[in-house]
Amino acid sequence: MKKIIYKIFILLLSTLIVFFLMREILGELLSRLIPYANSVFGYSVFVCLILILNTIINVFIYYKKNKKIYISKFGFAVFTISYILLLVSVLFSRNSLGNHYRNNYTPLKTIWGYLNSNADFIYIFSNLIGNIVIFIPLGSVIFYFLHKYMRDSMCIFISIFIVNLLELIQTNYIVGSFDIDDILLNSLGVFLGIKILAK
Q1: What is the pTM for the complete model shown?
Q2: Those residues with Cβ within 8 angstroms of residue 174's Cβ, 6 or more apart along the chain or in another chain
Q3: Contact (CB, 8 A) for 94 and 176
Q4: Segments making up each domain of the chain, as ranges
Q5: Chain-centre distance of CA 83, in angstroms?
Q6: pLDDT digits (tens, 9 = 90+) for 65-116
Q7: How many whole angstroms separate alpha carbon 59 and alpha carbon 69?
Q8: How would you label 90-117 residue by residue, b for 16+ Cβ within 10 Å and e otherwise?
Protein backbone atom coordinates (compact mmCIF):
# COMPACT_ATOMS: atom_id res chain seq x y z
CA MET A 1 0.00 0.00 0.00
CA LYS A 2 2.85 2.37 0.86
CA LYS A 3 4.50 1.72 -2.51
CA ILE A 4 1.27 2.55 -4.36
CA ILE A 5 0.83 5.77 -2.38
CA TYR A 6 4.48 6.64 -3.02
CA LYS A 7 4.14 6.09 -6.77
CA ILE A 8 0.94 8.15 -6.91
CA PHE A 9 2.62 10.95 -4.96
CA ILE A 10 5.65 11.02 -7.29
CA LEU A 11 3.38 10.97 -10.35
CA LEU A 12 1.33 13.89 -9.02
CA LEU A 13 4.48 15.78 -8.08
CA SER A 14 6.05 15.33 -11.52
CA THR A 15 2.76 16.32 -13.16
CA LEU A 16 2.58 19.55 -11.17
CA ILE A 17 6.22 20.39 -11.91
CA VAL A 18 5.81 19.81 -15.66
CA PHE A 19 2.56 21.79 -15.68
CA PHE A 20 4.28 24.72 -13.97
CA LEU A 21 7.32 24.57 -16.26
CA MET A 22 5.24 24.42 -19.43
CA ARG A 23 2.96 27.20 -18.29
CA GLU A 24 5.42 29.62 -16.72
CA ILE A 25 8.75 28.88 -18.38
CA LEU A 26 8.39 26.71 -21.48
CA GLY A 27 5.16 28.20 -22.80
CA GLU A 28 6.76 30.93 -24.88
CA LEU A 29 9.66 28.71 -25.91
CA LEU A 30 7.39 25.92 -27.16
CA SER A 31 5.13 28.36 -29.00
CA ARG A 32 8.16 29.89 -30.73
CA LEU A 33 9.73 26.56 -31.65
CA ILE A 34 6.59 24.82 -32.89
CA PRO A 35 4.02 27.50 -33.69
CA TYR A 36 2.09 25.14 -35.93
CA ALA A 37 1.94 22.25 -33.46
CA ASN A 38 -1.57 20.97 -32.79
CA SER A 39 -3.11 20.16 -29.43
CA VAL A 40 -2.40 16.42 -29.80
CA PHE A 41 1.31 17.18 -30.08
CA GLY A 42 1.12 19.45 -27.05
CA TYR A 43 -0.54 16.77 -24.92
CA SER A 44 1.94 14.11 -26.07
CA VAL A 45 4.85 16.35 -25.08
CA PHE A 46 3.19 16.97 -21.71
CA VAL A 47 2.77 13.24 -20.98
CA CYS A 48 6.30 12.38 -22.15
CA LEU A 49 7.83 15.09 -19.96
CA ILE A 50 5.85 13.82 -16.95
CA LEU A 51 7.16 10.27 -17.40
CA ILE A 52 10.72 11.44 -17.98
CA LEU A 53 10.67 13.72 -14.94
CA ASN A 54 9.05 10.95 -12.89
CA THR A 55 12.01 8.70 -13.65
CA ILE A 56 14.51 11.44 -12.80
CA ILE A 57 12.81 12.16 -9.45
CA ASN A 58 12.90 8.47 -8.51
CA VAL A 59 16.59 8.26 -9.38
CA PHE A 60 17.32 11.38 -7.31
CA ILE A 61 15.39 10.11 -4.26
CA TYR A 62 17.15 6.74 -4.43
CA TYR A 63 20.53 8.50 -4.67
CA LYS A 64 19.76 10.65 -1.62
CA LYS A 65 18.95 7.53 0.43
CA ASN A 66 21.65 5.16 -0.83
CA LYS A 67 24.34 7.49 -2.18
CA LYS A 68 24.44 5.71 -5.52
CA ILE A 69 22.59 5.95 -8.79
CA TYR A 70 20.10 3.20 -9.54
CA ILE A 71 17.61 3.02 -12.38
CA SER A 72 15.25 0.06 -12.46
CA LYS A 73 14.77 -1.69 -15.79
CA PHE A 74 11.10 -0.79 -15.78
CA GLY A 75 11.82 2.84 -14.93
CA PHE A 76 14.42 3.14 -17.66
CA ALA A 77 12.12 1.42 -20.16
CA VAL A 78 9.42 4.01 -19.40
CA PHE A 79 12.00 6.76 -19.72
CA THR A 80 13.26 5.36 -23.04
CA ILE A 81 9.80 5.05 -24.62
CA SER A 82 8.83 8.52 -23.45
CA TYR A 83 12.05 10.03 -24.73
CA ILE A 84 11.79 8.36 -28.14
CA LEU A 85 8.21 9.62 -28.55
CA LEU A 86 9.31 13.10 -27.51
CA LEU A 87 12.32 13.07 -29.86
CA VAL A 88 10.28 11.87 -32.84
CA SER A 89 7.61 14.48 -32.10
CA VAL A 90 10.15 17.30 -31.96
CA LEU A 91 12.10 16.19 -35.03
CA PHE A 92 9.22 15.25 -37.29
CA SER A 93 6.30 17.44 -36.19
CA ARG A 94 7.38 20.18 -38.54
CA ASN A 95 6.46 20.57 -42.17
CA SER A 96 7.74 22.89 -44.86
CA LEU A 97 4.92 25.46 -44.66
CA GLY A 98 6.52 27.32 -47.52
CA ASN A 99 9.90 27.55 -45.77
CA HIS A 100 13.00 27.34 -47.94
CA TYR A 101 15.50 25.08 -46.26
CA ARG A 102 19.16 25.51 -47.10
CA ASN A 103 21.69 22.74 -46.73
CA ASN A 104 25.00 23.46 -45.03
CA TYR A 105 28.07 21.30 -45.58
CA THR A 106 30.61 23.70 -44.02
CA PRO A 107 31.47 22.90 -40.39
CA LEU A 108 30.76 25.72 -37.88
CA LYS A 109 29.18 27.96 -40.53
CA THR A 110 25.69 27.81 -39.01
CA ILE A 111 26.99 27.99 -35.44
CA TRP A 112 29.00 31.15 -36.11
CA GLY A 113 26.05 32.54 -38.00
CA TYR A 114 23.84 32.17 -34.92
CA LEU A 115 26.45 33.66 -32.58
CA ASN A 116 27.04 36.67 -34.84
CA SER A 117 23.39 37.29 -35.69
CA ASN A 118 20.95 39.69 -34.09
CA ALA A 119 18.36 36.95 -33.57
CA ASP A 120 16.60 36.78 -30.20
CA PHE A 121 18.00 34.67 -27.39
CA ILE A 122 15.29 31.99 -27.48
CA TYR A 123 15.94 31.28 -31.17
CA ILE A 124 19.72 31.04 -30.69
CA PHE A 125 19.41 28.99 -27.49
CA SER A 126 17.00 26.48 -29.02
CA ASN A 127 19.18 25.96 -32.08
CA LEU A 128 22.53 25.68 -30.32
CA ILE A 129 22.05 24.44 -26.76
CA GLY A 130 18.77 22.71 -27.64
CA ASN A 131 20.47 20.61 -30.33
CA ILE A 132 22.90 19.34 -27.69
CA VAL A 133 20.54 18.82 -24.77
CA ILE A 134 17.82 16.96 -26.67
CA PHE A 135 20.30 14.24 -27.72
CA ILE A 136 21.95 13.69 -24.33
CA PRO A 137 19.29 11.11 -23.31
CA LEU A 138 19.81 9.25 -26.61
CA GLY A 139 23.44 8.63 -25.72
CA SER A 140 22.42 7.43 -22.26
CA VAL A 141 19.75 5.11 -23.68
CA ILE A 142 22.13 3.53 -26.21
CA PHE A 143 24.85 3.08 -23.59
CA TYR A 144 22.41 1.62 -21.04
CA PHE A 145 21.23 -1.12 -23.40
CA LEU A 146 24.46 -1.86 -25.28
CA HIS A 147 27.42 -1.27 -22.95
CA LYS A 148 27.36 -4.87 -21.69
CA TYR A 149 27.90 -6.16 -25.22
CA MET A 150 30.42 -3.70 -26.66
CA ARG A 151 33.01 -1.08 -25.85
CA ASP A 152 32.20 2.54 -25.08
CA SER A 153 33.78 3.61 -28.38
CA MET A 154 31.34 1.37 -30.28
CA CYS A 155 28.40 2.88 -28.38
CA ILE A 156 29.63 6.32 -29.42
CA PHE A 157 29.94 5.20 -33.04
CA ILE A 158 26.39 3.77 -33.09
CA SER A 159 25.03 6.94 -31.46
CA ILE A 160 26.65 9.21 -34.05
CA PHE A 161 25.43 6.91 -36.84
CA ILE A 162 21.85 7.27 -35.55
CA VAL A 163 22.29 11.07 -35.39
CA ASN A 164 23.35 11.10 -39.06
CA LEU A 165 20.48 8.80 -40.00
CA LEU A 166 17.92 11.06 -38.32
CA GLU A 167 19.35 14.10 -40.09
CA LEU A 168 19.07 12.36 -43.47
CA ILE A 169 15.50 11.24 -42.75
CA GLN A 170 14.52 14.80 -41.80
CA THR A 171 15.97 16.08 -45.05
CA ASN A 172 14.29 13.35 -47.10
CA TYR A 173 10.85 14.09 -45.63
CA ILE A 174 11.31 17.87 -45.96
CA VAL A 175 10.96 18.61 -42.25
CA GLY A 176 14.38 20.21 -42.09
CA SER A 177 17.59 20.75 -44.02
CA PHE A 178 20.89 18.89 -43.93
CA ASP A 179 23.25 20.83 -41.68
CA ILE A 180 26.66 19.49 -40.69
CA ASP A 181 26.58 21.74 -37.62
CA ASP A 182 23.38 20.05 -36.40
CA ILE A 183 25.21 16.73 -36.65
CA LEU A 184 28.16 18.13 -34.68
CA LEU A 185 25.91 19.50 -31.91
CA ASN A 186 23.76 16.35 -31.79
CA SER A 187 26.87 14.17 -31.68
CA LEU A 188 28.20 16.21 -28.76
CA GLY A 189 24.88 15.58 -27.03
CA VAL A 190 24.99 11.78 -27.42
CA PHE A 191 28.67 11.78 -26.38
CA LEU A 192 27.78 13.61 -23.15
CA GLY A 193 24.89 11.19 -22.60
CA ILE A 194 27.24 8.24 -22.81
CA LYS A 195 29.80 9.85 -20.51
CA ILE A 196 27.13 10.49 -17.88
CA LEU A 197 26.55 6.73 -17.43
CA ALA A 198 30.00 5.43 -18.38
CA LYS A 199 32.30 4.67 -15.46
Answers
A1: 0.73
A2: 95, 96, 101
A3: yes
A4: 1-93, 98-199
A5: 7
A6: 888 777 778 778 888 888 888 888 777 765 444 445 677 888 888 888 888 8
A7: 6
A8: bbebbeeeeeeeeebeeeeebbeeeeee
